[in-house]
Amino acid sequence: DAKTTQPPSMDCAEGRAANLPCNHSTISGNEYVYWYRQIHSQGPQYIIHGLKNNETNEMASLIITEDRKSSTLILPHATLRDTAVYYCIVGPNSNSGYALNFGKGTSLLVTP
Amino acid sequence: DGGITQSPKYLFRKEGQNVTLSCEQNLNHDAMYWYRQDPGQGLRLIYYSQIVNDFQKGDIAEGYSVSREKKESFPLTVTSAQKNPTAFYLCASSFGGVNTEAFFGQGTRLTVV
Description:
The structure holds 2 protein chains of 2 kinds.
Chain A: E1 9-13, E2 18-23, E3 32-38, E4 45-50, E5 55-56, E6 61-64, E7 70-75, E8 84-91, E9 106-111
Parallel strand pairs in A: 1-9
Antiparallel strand pairs in A: 2-7, 3-4, 3-8, 5-6, 6-7, 8-9
Chain B: E1 4-7, E2 10-13, E3 19-25, E4 31-37, E5 43-51, E6 54-57, E7 64-66, E8 76-78, E9 87-94, E10 103-104, E11 108-112
């Protein structure tokens, strides 16, 4: 059962900010929002996660709305190497050993 | 270097043969996970283990088996009972619990002919 909704694909020009949206209207109070990305034929790479406050690290920023029903991952200056599938996940799932449930994600294409 | 290692990267087997995929981590993580990914799809959970000598079935455990004899290792066996074994297999580990991130290996692409 999908707990997040993401657009299937997005484009972004190199050097511009990439803003990837995610809806998670059924998120519960103790669930975090995680973002991962997967470059073709590689394992997923952790980007960032947060509970309710906005978060920033060297890779990206995570903006979570006050009602926590949606979030946006921001890559401030996209490069060609940021082309990947980006997964927004709420969890982890305590019923399955705190595993993360991955949907289909958003395929981001960064163009020159 | 700390990390999680899967081997081999590519694996070919004949139909009807069992095959074991390796997953090793030196991150001192308690929890380990196996996922399967089919083309254009997300990841589906096969098995997980929260502690040594204990493991639980995930969403698609039929045709697979695992063991967790050591904290560092969580091998996955794809048995002949798995009807569609050709897929990309991913192993992950974490400290378990909330507010922790999972780290993934680079995956094993299994092709059964």
